[in-house]
Amino acid sequence: MTEQMRVRPTAVAGLGAFVVYVVVIVLVQSTSGVDYDDLAASSGNIWRAGILSLGVGAAVVAGLTVWFGWWRAATVETVRSRRRWTLVAPALYLLVVVGNLAVTDWGAVEVGFLLSAAALGVAVGFAEELTCRGTLLVGLRGTAREVVVWLTTCVLFGAMHGVNVLFGAEVGTTLQQVVMAGMQGSAFYVLRRVLGRLVWAMALHGLWDFSIFVQAASDGGTNLLGLLVYPTALVSLVAGFVVARDAGRSSGEPAVRSASASST
Fold first, then answer.
1. N or C: at which end does the chain have fewer Cβ atoms within 10 angstroms?
2. Which residue(s) pair with 108 in the sheet?
3. Can you say how many angstroms the Cα of residue 165 is from the centroid of all Cα atoms in its chain?
4. pLDDT, tens digit, for every residue of 134-184?
5. β-sheet bridge partners, residue 231
6. What are 24-65's pLDDT values in tens digits?
7. Of the candidates 2, 8, 44, 9, which has an alpha carbon nearest to the alpha carbon of residue 141?
8. Using an 8 Å Cβ cutoff, are 94 and 47 in contact?
9. DSSP letter string over 126-169?
């Protein structure tokens, strides 16, 4: 790895960046005055409560990642996994996205809302993936085995959605979101490990949120492919575990540690 790391990758540094991101999101979103259930009510709400907080959070984490000297390690996988069959997990999530877009009544979606939903997709994909499967992952790799890295990034990715209760989301619904998001995070991890770049996880993550927002806003028909979400979540866990287990033998985990050896 040619990148010079200013800060040695450790779990403390990675977790610190994660906590800073969550705190920034909560603080910025709390100033919007928009409840969680009203986020998709208008394009203005999306910009004030969603895109603004995600944008500030992304800028902070990106700045920390660059200052740490972790940018390349956070966005590029040194050694890709050869378990290509595990791509079935993100592929199934993509199929659900296609279903959401297929049942969307595009004539009922205003151009302004469409643009704001697209911007939100880009923001959430970049911010949350850089935080969880980028900076956090690099920090954890400096301390833990890859299976622990995989599991921790999934758990914390799900847990970060728990802050929605602070903005009026129902506890029961939020708990379900926390669990499902954590399992979906395993599919995003697979994309990074197999395809070799974080941008693919960012893209799928952004498309997922975009498709949900526009489908709901258009009051379109029911996406029967949505029933795939539950079995796909289980497939994602299996796929992520297999990829992470193999990484203990021949993955980018040692590459991060060797690179950190020359850091200050």
1. C
2. none
3. 19
4. 999 999 999 999 999 999 999 999 999 999 999 999 999 999 999 999 999
5. none
6. 999 999 998 899 888 888 899 999 999 999 999 999 999 999
7. 9
8. no
9. HHHHHIIIIIHHHHHHTTS-HHHHHHHHHHHHHHHGGGGGGGT-
